[in-house]
Amino acid sequence: MYRKTKSRIRYHGLHSCELPVPQGTRQGGKSSPLLYLVCIDGIITELMNSKNNVCLFDLNLCAPTVADDMVLASFSKRGLDNMLNICYEYSKKWRFLYNPSICAVVVFNEQEHKHQHSFKLGPD
What is the dihedral of CA 114, 118, 119, 121, to 10 degrees? Predict the structure, then answer.
């Protein structure tokens, strides 16, 4: 199905030559959403088992996911740091990268003063 996959880049009506696609799923492919869910099932399981996440009644809200977007929810900085480490280790194992330019951290706090927390994904 995905052996020797090739793609072209279309930009302003122009097409590139064919380029090899060594890994990943085809954007817009019929099987891509299912294959993506199979791929991330392991990370969601690890996050749920980490006990660093938020639960509402019987619903585990550790990593709500839509398409290729994921939210990590934790009650503490330490819990979120642990979850980020799980995500980093999983990405190393399965050879994919996160795009830091589209990642963000939101801290909800009852106190009026702001905390200067630092979060990072991996050692860098």
Answer: 160
